[in-house]
Amino acid sequence: MSAQDWVEKDFYATLGVAKDATPADLKKAYRKLAHELHPDKNPGNAAAEARFKEVSEAYDVLSDAKTRAEYDEARSLFGSGSFRRASGSGGMGGGGAGAFDFSSMFGDGAQSSGSAGAGDLGDMFGGLFGGGRAGGRSFRQTSRAGQTGQRGPARGQDAQADVTLGFDEAVQGQTLPLRLSGPAACDLCRGSGAAPGTAPHQCSVCGGSGYISRNQGAFGFSEPCRACQGTGQVIDTPCPRCQGTGVTTQVRTITVRVPPGVRDGAKLKIAGKGQPGVRGGPAGDLFVTVHVLGHELFGRSGDDLTLTAPITFAEAALGTTLRVPTLDGSVALRIAPGTASGRTLRVRGRGAPKRAGGNGDLLVTVEVAVPQNMSAAAREALEAFALAQTDDPRPDISAAVGPRATAKPAAADAGAGGLSDEA
Questions:
Q1: Nearest to 279 by CA among 153, 94, 109
Q2: Cα–Cα distance measured from residue 118 to residue 106, given in angstroms and rounded to the nearest whole number
Q3: What is this structure's pTM?
Q4: Which residues pair with 213 in a beta bridge?
Q5: Is residue 36 domain-shared with residue 55, that is, in the same domain?
Q6: Could you read off the pLDDT of 324-334 as tens digits, one per residue?
Q7: Is the CB of residue 226 less than 8 Å from the CB of residue 144?
């Protein structure tokens, strides 16, 4: 659309409405004319097609509040036809031309002539029409509200879901059904949006591209095709179930396979199980977040399982063979004599499955359990052991505090700054 069109075309007259028409009046008038002049209803009628484009052009300008204000301002500033003059009259531009040449205001000729006024006026028009001059000659206009038209099929959006597994299920893997409620391809029209027995066809206005481009004078416009709403396709008979959208809300059940060894918080991608595509486009993907419950015995560190096994002082000192559980049974664990409390022993291959193959390990930490209640025989035997024990388990500490630390029983020092049970 050229600058001359903005000040000389009466878009209100094109739609047959008053200048103070409300948005609802504009929409009503446009729909009535578009219905009457649509090329599909007037095949081969060039005049109707041209009129349809004029109506679409007028509505595109007037339906947007900002563009309409700019249009009204341009017409009130310059006046409809004020740049036209009768043939042979004097005045601006001279030479007796029938109309003022807007291209002289924006083109290279005006600038090369050294006319500062022409350049300033061109800058004013660039700001007024909301575009600015690209290379000093033209600007490009997008669709209303800054959105570009969609052309043909479009990919569906990705979907999110959560599953909760037990500790054993996560380690061993699980296949489970997952119920999802949301948009899905209409099962009546199979996502095409057209009623059964019919199919969408290419829009004859835009040729299936989804947009209409114009180059007129100094300006170029590209806008979504209003005949097909930017889709490039026209549906004559919409599907009665989805009203032509190709999508309905459905409850569907899909089978999700959780691989062995999955960790808490892991995300699984299931291709093609997200929301359905638009107008027959491919579906999005489904991303499943896995939550893993804890276990009463086992913990987990990467691909390794962890286990704490209490042992007695005698077992730690003398050594023993301890049987410990695994997720799939049990295994014998050799405790060497003199094993310290807190030592971790490794049982290879009895952990969680690894992604690259094989299994992690089972890490068993032994802790010496101190008895809270002892029988008289056990106490007597332990006291005999204490008397027979000659090795000092803390030689560095004993050397630091001196022999006085062993001169009296610990209970005797409680009243002189030591710690008692009540402290």
A1: 153
A2: 7
A3: 0.47
A4: 222
A5: yes
A6: 999 889 999 99
A7: no
